[in-house]
Amino acid sequence: MKKIYLYGNWKMNMNREETEKFYKDFGGQVAGDPALLAAMGKTLEVAVFPPFTSLAAAEGASKNLDKRTVPFLGAQNVYFEPKGAFTGEISIPMLKDFGCAHVILGHSERRTIFGEPDELIAGKVKAVLDAALVPVFCYGETLAEREGDKTFDVVSRQLRAALSGRTPGEAEKIVYAYEPVWAIGTGKSATSNEAQEVCAYSKKLIRELAGSAAMPVVVLYGGSVKPDNAKELLSMEAIDGALVGGASLKADSFLQIYKAYANN
Ligand code: PGA
Questions:
Q1: Which of 254, 227, 228, 264 is nearest to 29 (CA)?
Q2: Which residues have a catalytic role annotated?
């Protein structure tokens, strides 16, 4: 049974009221579907990643939903120290306090706009694993790197840095998200073959780095996933799911992506 991951990265969007509305619309719609999916031999893991200021609203809103349909709650970033003089930062215990199970790390906007280097991201991956949360590790090349034939070098460098010092058991717990920077927020998704090629390469490399040829590895694709391209992307053999930005902000379009899989 192929398990599909559908993650919504809200970025710096969605206040409390919008968050509550999303939960009401999304939860109400998917109720009953888990049984339907199981009958079709499919399983699905849905998670949403609100901004820190809407985590409480998301946690509160999920209490009103049918338990089987509550999306996992995640954060978009974290700092690796547990507490102290780190103005402006949020710790892992603080995220746990809101019921977060996942944390996005190394998103290209963190790397390019806020200058987060590979080593800092690797430290965060370790801390999140140590705390038994799921790191959703993002990586991917820029347009200049792709055009310069550097895609595999960049992907390899980023994955090696994140996995340096990690055991096979730890490497297996990470959810990897291949997000070509040129496809994020541009409306221009990678083709299903382009995404498949890099996701397949990533799986092979992750298994090599972990020294475990048979290890299960989950790799998502992210970058302009929309209702009209989700079905094709999700049907690719090396793609286990989608990390969705813009199209996850409205319950309706996120649901259409969900249904593209459910009816696939
Ligand atoms: P997008 O963002 O779907 O809006 O392109 C994806 C992401 O950055 O995770």
A1: 254
A2: 107, 179
CATH number of the CATH domain containing 133: 3.20.20.70
DSSP string, 36-103: HHHHTT-EEEEEEE--GGGHHHHHHHHTTS-GGGPPEEEES--BSSSSSS-TT--BHHHHHHTT--EE
How many CB atoms neighbour CB 159 within 10 A? 23
Q: Distance (Å, rounded) from C-alpha 72 to C-alpha 177?
A: 17
State how many domains the chain has.
Answer: 1
Measured CA to CA, the distance from residue 231 to residue 49 in angstroms comes to 22
Residue with token string 């221009």: 188
Verify whether ligand 1 is closer than 6 Å to residue 8 (CB atom): no
- What would the pLDDT profile of 79-124 be if each residue is shown by its tens digit? 999 999 999 999 999 999 999 999 999 999 999 999 999 999 999 9
Q: Interior CA angle at 212 toward 206 and 214, to 5°?
A: 95
Q: Say which DSSP state 219 is in.
A: E
Q: State the pLDDT at residue 109.
A: 97
For the stretch 142-197, pLDDT in tens is 999 999 999 999 999 999 999 999 999 999 999 999 999 999 999 889 999 999 99
Q: Which domain holds residue 154?
A: 4-262
- Closest by CA position to 255, among listed 27, 11, 60: 27
Task: Kindly report the protein residue whose alpha carbon is nearest to atom 1 of ligand 1.
Answer: 245
Quote the ligand 1 centre to 51 CA distance (angstroms): 14
Model-level pTM greater than 0.90?
yes
Expressed in angstroms and rounded, the spacing between residue 110 Cα and the centre of ligand 1 is: 13
> Residue 236 class from Cβ within 10 Å (0-12 exposed, 13-18 middle, 19+ buried)?
middle
